[in-house]
Structures are given as C-alpha cells and as structure tokens.
Amino acid sequence: MLFLREVNMRGDIQEILLTGEEIQAKVIELGEQVTTDYQGKNLLLLGTLKGAVPFIADLARAINLPLEIDYMAISSYGNSTQSSGVVRILKDLEGPVQNKHVLIVEDIVDSGLTLHYLMDVLRQRKPLSLRVCALLDKLRERVKPVELDYTGFRIPNQFVVGYGLDYAQRYRNLPYIGILKPSVYQDELQEPQRHHQSRVEEG
Q: If we measure between CA atoms, which residue out of 86, 99, 106, 131 comes closest to residue 200?
C-alpha cells in the first residue's frame, strides 16, 4: 500500500509535463482574460476541493477585480475506485448565487461526469451566468459533454499529479505537474486514471 512505503515524490515522477514556471505564466494569462471579461460584474470563483485549491488561489491573485471565493466538494465514487454512478455533494456553497456571475475553477477535467452534475445543480440556483475555467483538459472521450470557457493546457490521457492533483492524497504539493510512474500505482489500481475521478471532477 502507498501509505506503508516511503514516498519519494520527485523520484516517483516519470516525466514533468508542465513546469511551475509554465503553470504560473498560464495562470497569469487566464487571470488577464477573466479580468477583461468580468469587468463590472459580481464575480464568484467556485473552487472544487481538494485539487483546485492551488489553482484558484493563484488565479484569484491574477484577477484584477473584486471577487468572492467559495468551495464545493463532490464525489461520484465514495470509497471505491469503481464508479457507482451516484454523484453526491460532500460540501455545499456557503451562500446563494442568484445575483452572482459564477466561474467554476477546476484543476482537471477528465470524464466530465461530475462537472456536468455540478453545472446542472448550479443552473437550478439561477446564477447570473455560469462558466468553467479548467487548468487541465485531458484528451479523452467524455462520459458527459461539458463546455470549457477557459482552458489552460490540453494534456494526454496520462495519470498526472502535482499542483493540487494527487494519488492517494499525496503529491498535491509538487510545484509542477508530472506523469506518475506506473510502478507507483500498479499494485493499487488496475486503471489509475479512475483515481482522479474520486475527487471533484476529478480533482
């Protein structure tokens, strides 16, 4: 089991996909786009726990506007690595969104299942607008279609960690995004890509 062995975070990375410098440059670019698009609007950044925490913190600092930040946590997997098909809210927003322009901030969009559910829930609460900003868009077939309004990077269908993304709650604090060596997870999961989906879409 992962928690029973010593974790060599950098040694467990097969390849650095995105450096910390590349990520920060992209976050600044996204922040400038959001600043332009939301001038004069009541903006709420909605972060998805836990994976989007580093991204939403950096993105908020890159946006030159008054804004609010709130969080939701959603799971479609519970305690299993296999999807039950049931999506549930683990942590809801602290306040209403009716008079706000909501921008969902995602670390990674994978199958689209949980994000699709989240957007349906939020639309029923009647925000002034609802958009999605995703740092990573994984190139794979979606289970549910979702539209991304702001995208940082499109990445291959590999199991990635770092900058908020984890494997078994580890590696979130790496400053870059890297591909995890298969030897790290091969005894844990037959399909490690599904482990991303145990979090909020899927981070």
A: 106
Tokens of 103: 């921008």
Query: In this structure, what token pair is assigned to residue 142?
Result: 């979606």
Q: Which domains does the chain have, with CATH numbers?
A: 20-155 (3.40.50.2020)
Ordered DSSP codes for 7-32: --TTTTEEEEEE-HHHHHHHHHHHHH
Q: Is the pTM of this model over 0.90?
A: no
The tens digit of pLDDT for each residue in 168-196 reads 889 999 999 999 999 888 765 545 444 55
Close Cβ partners of 110 (under 8 Å, ≥ 6 residues apart): 138, 140, 193, 196, 197, 201, 202
117: left (phi over 0), alpha (psi -120 to 50) or beta: alpha
Q: Provide the token pair at 203.
A: 């981070």
> Mind telling me the catalytic residues?
110
CB 175 within 8 A of CB 92: no
